[in-house]
Write a structure and sequence with these properties.
Aspartate Aminotransferase, domain 2; Aspartate Aminotransferase, domain 1; alpha/beta
């Protein structure tokens, strides 16, 4: 059976060159970078070379890159670490309603610790209004955290406008760039953010590794305690194979960015056009012209998304209804709800996230089998018949 993977926002396959770069550090170059003997020094060199590579590609100093276990840890460190380190200045944080749960749950935790959190609304395209941020800024705000690219609908936030508002007030700014890295150009200095989260497995790197950019001078409390690894910002022996792989993945994904975006834009726009032509009542969640070009979030009126996912899976096609971190929940997507999408429409949402290995042949195949699946499910749905 043909197998097609359209869930690249959940995770990506490891790039062959990434795997090749990692392999020596599993077997021959296995030293602990904190050890001072030859094996340790060899690992330490690899660690710092990877740090320097990531820093150069992002246009920052290597002393501002800290390796973590992934985007979730980076987000937790940014939000909780900044809040606790600066609570003498204020106890108010601003974020948006469509953030990844790593941010939202961190904010809920802080609320229990006496902090106040403002959750900004978004428009029907899934974009924060800078004007709402401007109105929400008060004297006791210590941190604003807004994701750069949304993981469910692909909406791109106006981070430079947000930065101008925040930096005029001397407030720390963090962005979760897990879904932005490898999808849109990132110039950290131009964005003028204080912290930026990244993850390896979203960019054809390994799972279990990521990084956070922390601008020099940012006051932040470490969130894991132990040794003095990562300049006392993140305790624990560094994952050298993963870090080497992460650095290689960053290098490759940024090198291939323009070519991949042209390829993915062609695939997703062709796919969307074919579906609109063959399936009635398809609703685009988000905006076709202002999104990460690999991502399409579509609702099929009168059909539950889970039924479509299972039907496509039986045909060898992997998709999801939203964030992989919230799979299994019966609640409508918090992102789609924040965008004002009705629950019955949100329940029928499917996220198609294409990747570098997908082809026009994949588009043709999925576009050919999806109409029959939707029609069959709608024929069993009294809700769709009633809605008609």
């Amino acid at each position: 059976m043909k197998r097609i993977y359209l869930d690249h926002n959940a995770t990506t396959p490891v790039h062959p060159e990434v795997l090749e770069a990692m392999l020596p550090y599993f077997k021959d170059k296995f030293g602990n970078p904190s050890s001072i003997h030859g094996f340790g020094r060899e690992a330490k060199v690899a660690l710092e070379e990877a740090r320097e590579k990531v820093a150069q590609l992002l246009g920052v100093s290597s002393s501002e890159i800290f390796f973590t276990a992934g985007g979730t840890e980076s987000d937790n460190l940014a939000v909780k670490g900044t809040a606790f380190a600066n609570r003498n200045k204020g106890k108010h944080i601003i974020t948006s309603r469509i953030e990844h749960h790593a941010i939202l749950e961190s904010c809920k935790f802080l609320e229990k610790e006496g902090f106040n959190v403002t959750y900004l609304p978004v428009d029907s395209k899934g974009v924060v209004y800078p004007e709402d941020l401007q109105k929400a800024v008060q004297n006791d705000i210590i941190l604003v955290s807004i994701m750069y690219v949304n993981n469910e609908v692909g909406s791109i936030q106006p981070m430079e406008d947000i930065s101008r508002i925040v930096k005029d007030k001397g407030i720390y700014l963090h962005t979760d760039a897990v879904q932005a890295l490898g999808k849109i150009p990132i110039d950290v200095r131009k964005l003028n953010v204080d912290m930026l989260s990244m993850s390896g497995h979203k960019i054809y790197g390994p799972k279990g590794v990521g990084a956070i950019y922390i601008r020099k001078g940012v006051r932040i409390t470490p969130w894991s305690h132990g040794g003095h690894h990562e300049r006392s910002r993140r305790a624990g022996t560094e994952n050298i194979p993963g870090i080497v792989g992460f650095a290689k993945a960053v290098e490759l994904t940024l090198r291939e960015l323009d070519d991949q975006n042209r390829h993915l834009k062609n695939l997703t726009e062709t796919f969307y056009r074919k579906l609109v032509e063959t399936v009635p009542d398809v609703i685009l969640n988000g905006d076709l012209n202002s999104r990460a070009v690999n991502t399409l979030n579509l609702s099929f009126k009168g059909v539950e998304g889970e039924s479509i996912i299972l039907s496509l899976d039986l045909k060898g096609v992997a998709v999801t209804s939203g964030s992989a971190c919230t799979s299994g929940t019966l609640e409508p997507s918090h992102v789609l709800s924040a965008m004002g999408i009705a629950p019955e429409i949100a329940q029928g949402a499917i996220r198609f996230s294409f990747g570098r290995g997908n082809t026009m042949e994949d588009v043709e195949y999925v576009a050919s089998i999806l109409p029959e699946i939707v029609n069959r499910l709608r024929s069993m749905s009294p809700l769709y018949a009633k809605g008609k």
